[in-house]
From TrEMBL:
Annotated Gene3D superfamilies: 1.20.1260.10
Signal peptide coordinates: none
InterPro entries: Ferritin-like (IPR012347), Ferritin-like_SF (IPR009078), tRNA-Hydrxlase_MiaE (IPR010386)
PANTHER family per the UniProt record, alphabetical: TRNA 2-(METHYLSULFANYL)-N(6)-ISOPENTENYLADENOSINE(37) HYDROXYLASE, TRNA-(MS[2]IO[6]A)-HYDROXYLASE
Name the UniProt record assigns to this protein: tRNA-(Ms[2]io[6]A)-hydroxylase
Amino acid sequence: MEQNKTTLGLNLPTDPRWVNIAEKSIDEILIDHAYCEQKAASSGISLIVQYPEYEELVEMLTDLVAEEWSHFERVLEMMNKRGIKLSKMRKDEYVLAISKIVKGGGSREDQLVEKLLLNALIEARSCERFKILHQNIQDEELSKFYFELMVSEAGHYNGFLDMAKRFKPEAQVMKRWSEFLAAEAEILKTLEVRPDRMH
């Protein structure tokens, strides 16, 4: 059996250079992280608006939105302690690129599964980045903070993946998930390792 190569089975681990430049630019990382949490909450709200008829989905997303927004508030708290101001939102090249993995067409449920898998992928990569920060940065408060978020993001990843399996057979979902992972790994190879991006 093939072993998972990194956190949550991602096919390609983060470039080891990322954590070094991230720690040197932790102000910029925190700003980008704040917006990542805000966008995660917004994405959950968007899915609720698009698919209100699925009660279990709405229930799961309602909890997720509340948690992601609390993370946004906590990142702002960390920034305030360090005298960091929230500046303009940056272009999220990673999310823009992986969004192209999503297939159009098909049934309403086909489209929902694609969106759930996209969100699962973002949560998985975020979890991996938080784990790297927890294990490597010297700021003890931030290290503990990122451990807590790592655990939370892993839960969100599982939530999205499990929810997808409620709408399509597990074998079909996992086949498509493997395609998402393979495509994401290729995309990651093309992106610059930046000091001002969480992804």
